[in-house]
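ARCHIVE CARD
SHELF: 3
SLOT: left
DATA:
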Amino acid sequence: MAMNRLFIPAVMALLTLAACSNKSKLFPGYSVTDSGIHYKLITLGEGDTPASIINYVTAVIAYRTINDSLFFQGVRQFQLTAPEYEGSIDECFLMLNTGDSASFYIQAEPFFTKTLGTSLPRFINPGEFMRVDIKLLEVKTAEEFQKEMEAFMSWINDFGEYEKVILKQYLDGQKVDAQPTESGLYIIHQVKTQRSSVEIGDTVTIHYEGRFLNGKLFDSTRKRGEPFQFVYGQKWQVIPGLEEAIGKMREGEKAMLIVPSHLAFGQQGNSNGMIPAFTSVIFELEILEVKKGLAQ
């Protein structure tokens, strides 16, 4: 049965859906669509705005292995596009209204190879499912998103020039003599090795600490006691400045990064408001481990 809207904010609609849907034989408590997505509603939101193609959505997203091991979690905003293949993650978003949260099992291999354009990581076996948990926070039409961006930029533009002044003062004050990369990133190497370099599709484990130019800490994997692991080259994993630096480093290396806002959290700042718009930041970065991707 094909449905664009599986979760309708009414008890009778949910009962009708349950009667029509196929029960999953692989995952108890889940139902399954004709395209092979296994799904379960967790929370029914109070919003009545469905996600649809070309909408901009803001969502909390978590990825887990079939054994329930979390390998990514974060808040992301992006524009929905038409599903490229049956059973894609795009279909999951199209099932939700504002405020809904749901759990899905999708095929892992096409998610990595087609959606993310990378190889399947070593910690997931070919043919396995992965779990995707989504809470849909907000849905905007393309017109609403554009108007919001225009209104935002009308008063924020001056901050871009201000950032340049603050960054120059910091570089001069710290006597930073390293030359920026073409993008504007400063990489100050602290420990160099001749171990494995990082390539697209590799599983990379890192420690990092993020600070403002005044030294105030805003994020630290070390303080959490848990390094961050991800597949290099995936979308939505790390900020552009970190991704660029990691691609220029090797296993075991350490570096300090000075990251202008266009390579960090940009013109809007981060999703929780901790980092303001047009804010340059510093990262202490260590590459703990590089596991070569299946393609290598």
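SLOT: right
DATA:
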Amino acid sequence: MTERPGRVMAEQHQPRRIDVLIADDQDLVRTGFALVVDAASDMRVVATASDGAEAVRLTAEFRPDVVLMDIRMPRVDGITAARAILEGSEQPPKIVALTTYDNDEYATRILAAGASGYLLKDTTAEGLTAAIRTVHRGGSVLAPSTTHRLVTARPPRPARPSALLETFTAREREVFDLIVAGASNAEIAGRLNLAEVTVKTHVGRVLAKIGVRDRVNVVIWAYENGAART
């Protein structure tokens, strides 16, 4: 039987869900996070892994958009697995560390490996799904306590802001200040009365000019270089 054109068109325009892989060595934790993810209408769990080696293998097989990665796991830890995943694919997934340990060394190492976020397992269901959407869109997420320590542990701010700020256009400086204040792209678009796609362009230029990979490092760079407006 031939499908009606209207029905086919409707199905073709259904937004694709975010595919998520969960890596954690505790079965109950994997099950709980899977229930949270699958309850969201715009995402689904495509695979779960009980250690880092399995996470690497299943990521290559299922090609998820986002990997929720525990840090301390048997055989291969989450940091090593994240590095292998991100270095071994032309189109790697976004990785969010999801751990019990509010540990600056772990956070620094997995972010340096290329992860897009570091969250604690006591995050809310809403916080977890919001983080998945954020990194899938190209943003980054950090546990608030981790962000505070990473910023305040930096060397004292210089007396004069970095000369790189002088290379910003007026609009780029506005976007930069709002990133440092913690605003999302959607919030920046609303504040500046811009299309979100335009904001993404400005964010990309800001990242390129100061030579950082993501929004988390924009905040750190701002405090290191006396560029955070308080």
